[in-house]
Amino acid sequence: MTSFPKLLQRMQELKDLYGIIGLATWDQETYLPRKGEPARACQLSSLQGLYHEKLVDPALGELLERAAARPDLTSDEQAMLRVLRWERDRAVRVPPELVRELAAAQSQALPVWREARKLNDFALFCPALERLVRIRREQADALGHGGRRYDALLEGYEPGMRVERLSPVLLGLKEKLVPMVQALCDAPEPHPMASQVFEGKTFNGDRQWRFTQRLLEEMGFDLEAGRQDRSVHPFTGGTHPRDVRLTVRIDEANPMTALFGVIHEGGHGLYEQGYAEEHHRTPLAAAPSMGIHESQSRLWENLVGRSLPFWAHYFPILRAEFPKELGGVEPEAFYCAVNRVTRSLIRIEADEVTYNLHIVLRYELELALLDGELAVADLPGVWNERMQALLGVTPPSDEKGVLQDIHWAWGELGYFPSYTIGNLYSATLYAAAQRDLPGLEERLSRGELSVLTEWLRRRIHRDGHRRYAEEQVRHVAGKGLTDEDFVEYLRRKYEALYGVQLPR
Amino acid sequence: MTSFPKLLQRMQELKDLYGIIGLATWDQETYLPRKGEPARACQLSSLQGLYHEKLVDPALGELLERAAARPDLTSDEQAMLRVLRWERDRAVRVPPELVRELAAAQSQALPVWREARKLNDFALFCPALERLVRIRREQADALGHGGRRYDALLEGYEPGMRVERLSPVLLGLKEKLVPMVQALCDAPEPHPMASQVFEGKTFNGDRQWRFTQRLLEEMGFDLEAGRQDRSVHPFTGGTHPRDVRLTVRIDEANPMTALFGVIHEGGHGLYEQGYAEEHHRTPLAAAPSMGIHESQSRLWENLVGRSLPFWAHYFPILRAEFPKELGGVEPEAFYCAVNRVTRSLIRIEADEVTYNLHIVLRYELELALLDGELAVADLPGVWNERMQALLGVTPPSDEKGVLQDIHWAWGELGYFPSYTIGNLYSATLYAAAQRDLPGLEERLSRGELSVLTEWLRRRIHRDGHRRYAEEQVRHVAGKGLTDEDFVEYLRRKYEALYGVQLPR
Predict the structure, then answer these.
(1) pLDDT tens for residues A63-113?
(2) What is the mean pLDDT of residues A319-326?
């Protein structure tokens, strides 16, 4: 029994509505008929309007204030109040006109960005992005901050995180990664066949699908409380912890798209399925930040999915599924193929060593944009310069440079750091799991993925939104946001793989 | 431009919400993971609560009154106002406690009905049904009526229809059907092989699926503005005229399940896709009654789909798809097989001659229940007696008798007549189409289904909810609800098929 039944009912209604927005979004990417797209945009906009209306309802505000004043709340109830008040306060602070203006600017910017990327013409996108940056600055001011606009936006993705805390970590990471990337890219390829493992082959889509379903099951994803479908851009969605929906893109030329995609989304999916049952339909059935959510997908995708123990078990299975295509491939060549470090241009194709440099680049540019130190029109030049400094490569075109990501066209400024926060948390959590679970990698190499799933459920998933993300990581690992476990992980793995000594 | 922009916005919001309820319902029957079912029930209940809240909002009432007072409304605007006021008035009149009580009684009754049907134990279901009848009587009183409670419920499915108008038609129909059924069931089978056309054969599901997709396309159903999926209980749903979703059940033992199912749902689907574009997201993008909606599915399923011209074209195609299974079947045997008249026990399996007697039975029982002239406990006995009188057969069990339909367990009293109204309208409209389109059956026998689709779009679908259903039929056919075209259609078809003279 809760001590605030009326408030709980409101929480449940909001969560139900949120779940249904999830359904309408999932459907949009999977089964919606082409001609239904404009109608769906209207339906989603109406639903989001209703959600907002319910959230800012003064009656909800009163219920929250009254509940907050009670002396007898359990810690879970306190956490529920904290989360919902946080969400409501942010919604109340931004004037409706600004919400509408952002929505309009987003709808206007998206097709322009697509066109600009196609034509490799940043100037086309520039006015739309300028408008978005201006609106997001105004939003940041409306939300309130202690002098740093970026903090107000970052808070939307990483509650509790601040530039002051984040910048030293990211800049420290950058200092370590730049020479590491250089050393690895200058070293000879660790296996002569690594670049040819998939080349020129075709991998049957149905067999890929079967393999991904098997992987999901063995990771512990409950296919009776969720499902997998195909979509162009893979994502994790759904309506409820018992209805979690993953999507996968299958590329017959390269099975790693689907395979790592599924391990990644499976990590997200396990988190969503793992919230404690007593928190379902409350604000606690959610992750406390995008970064910690990403830590789960990255932990599975990289720390597990690109590891030797994992492939010790799964490579023979994969090869049995594709005997013609992989029959002649040595396990070592395969392991090297899925772990090649290159001076990558495209973030979403980047390996785990270079990936975070792409994020640092964007983070620094976003900070400068928000602080007014960088004009949107100057982005392409600065982007290319910094890419050269960070990765030793200059994009041959803006399409492969500043225009590559959809995020800014969505107006999502402040989101990119979550990817790196996720990567850092993933290494810290995995190190904690190894301390807690002796023989973990041994067991993973026998295909016992569930031992890790169980640990994550118990230590992270169950808690949902009870703590701030960094607090949760500290609770589990004894430390918060740090690059030490991540850098140590990279060093150990890539020194062994490339047979080189990495700078420290 | 509309003369009531604010009201239009409310109409659109309601329609969007209604569409999303359609999505959540469709998903529940198609892709929802098993363990997500309880959560979906909550989500749907929250959505329906929101819809109701928006509908009864006093601000909407004021906007409606203010708009209604304007002298400059177009006829479409007047129709929009009429439809929304009707819906709102009904929602306002029923007290929230009664709405909640009905919802609770429905949820409670459904599993009890399933159990009772399984155990063939009406007594188990009796208290639940008594409660539902009581609540529906109270609802009828809350809704208001001129002395006949049934009218208030009937109005929910057939706006404008009254017992006073309906009863003479249904009773007249009964008088004609009873001797017709007797004559046909006493006559020898029209083709010796008719009962063995499908017996003991297996019809590949994928090929059935392909055939149904082809049929849908050739009927003119736009698969880019809708889709087909599988479900246990076929239905037509969706979210918008550009997102219409049909489902089909495929039975490998009998391809007619899928085939007539798809023609039936395709008829509904064409209606939903056919609303005039300028009415989308307004109350006019809807059928004016369940009966007229059913007229479209029945017209396609029976008047077209069970006709000689239709099979003259499609039987060779179907046989080519299933050469092994249907290679030795004569077209005449096939035509007879899909048009056999039997003393059917189960409504949903009944042929088109006996079908309406099942409806008349239920209608008379519902009237008596609502009028307080029949006790729920006495239903099984009366059911069996009347079945004997109407169809010359007594159900061997309540499971095959009074417990067969889900409708009463849903509390849906007043719904059944819509099926017969649909059948009667379908014959009247088809006769009008034949008058308007010389050579129609000739063209159908060449597979030109679109000629009929175009006519239906122009004469029925486009108009949506602009007129009351009977008014619309009268507008198109020059007459409203009557059994004359239907009875004439049956006589002509079944005299030819059975080679007998039917009583007149």
Answers:
(1) 999 999 999 999 999 999 999 999 999 999 999 899 999 999 998 999 999
(2) 96
The four Cα atoms A393, A394, A397, A400 give a dihedral, to 10 degrees, of: 40
Q: Is residue A24 pLDDT above 90, yes or no?
A: yes
Give one DSSP letter per residue of A344-387, joined into a string: -S-GGG--TTTHHHHHHHHHHHHHHHHHTSS-GGGHHHHHHHHH
How many CB atoms are closer than 10 A to CB A134?
A: 13
Strand ranges across the sheet with B243-248:
B226-230, B243-248, B236-240
Q: Are A345 and A400 in contact (CB under 8 A)?
A: yes
Round to whole Å and give the CA distance between A92 and A86: 10
Backbone angles phi, psi at B390, to 5 degrees: -80, -45
Start-end of H helices in A203-327: 205-219, 255-274, 290-298, 308-321, 323-326
What would the two tokens of residue B89 be? 């008035």
> Is A33 within 8 Å of B227 when comparing Cβ atoms?
yes
Could you tell me the residue ranges of all domains in chain B? 1-93
- Cβ of B281 within 8 Å of Cβ of A225? The answer is no
Q: Is B13 part of the contact surface with chain A (CB cutoff 8 Å)?
A: yes
Looking at the predicted complex, does its ipTM rise above 0.90? yes
CA distance A398 to A118: 10
Whether chain A has a CB inside 8 Å of the CB on B29: the answer is no
The 10s digit of each residue's pLDDT in A257-267 is 999 999 999 99
Give yes or no for A23 touching B (CB within 8 A).
yes
User: Three-class SS of residue B482?
Assistant: coil
Among A128, A388, A478, A22, residue whose Cα is nearest residue B32: A22
pTM of the model: 0.96
Mean pLDDT of chain B: 96
Is residue B265 annotated as part of the catalytic site, yes or no? yes
Q: What pLDDT is recorded for position B503?
A: 86
Tokens 């009583």, located at residue: B503
Strands A243-248 and B236-240: unpaired
Match 């200059």 to its residue by tokens.
A394
d(CA A154, CA A157): 6
**Contact between A42 and B281 using a beta-carbon 8 Å cutoff:** yes
- Residue that the structure tokens 């002051």 belong to: A164
Handedness of CA A454, A456, A458, A461 (dihedral sign): negative
A411 phi and psi angles, rounded to 5 deg: 80, 15
**pLDDT the model gives residue B221:** 98
**Residue A196 or B151, more confident:** B151
Q: What is the pLDDT of residue A1?
A: 58
State the sign of the Cα–Cα–Cα–Cα dihedral B131, B137, B138, B142.
positive
Give residue B390's Cα distance to chain centre: 22
Nearest to residue A99, comparing CAs of A91, A88, A107? A91
- Please report the number of interchain residue pairs, chain A to chain B, with beta-carbon separation below 8 angstroms: 122
Contacts of A234 (CB under 8 A, 6+ apart): A246, A247, A248, A249, A261, A264, A265
How far does the CA of residue B103 sit from the closest CA of chain A (Å)?
A: 17
Nearest to A239 among B39, B222, B242 (CB): B39
B20, B31, B224: residue with CB nearest A20:
B20
Helix (H, G, I), strand (E, B) or coil at B342: coil
SS3 per-residue string spanning A73-100: CCHHHHHHHHHHHHHHHHHHHCCHHHHH
The beta-carbon contacts of A117-123 under 8 Å, at least 24 apart in sequence, are A117/A399, A117/A403, A117/A404, A118/A399, A120/A397, A120/A398, A120/A399, A120/A403, A121/A398, A122/A379, A122/A380, A122/A398, A122/A402, A122/A403
Check CB contact of A69 with chain B, cutoff 8 Å: no
Tokens of residue B360, six digits: 């008349």
Instruction: Quickly list DSSP for B21-49.
Output: HHHHHHHHHHT--GGGHHHHHHHHHHHHH
Is residue B504 very low, low, confident or very high in pLDDT (cuts 50, 70, 90)?
Answer: confident
Q: What are phi and psi of A480, to 5 degrees?
A: -95, -130
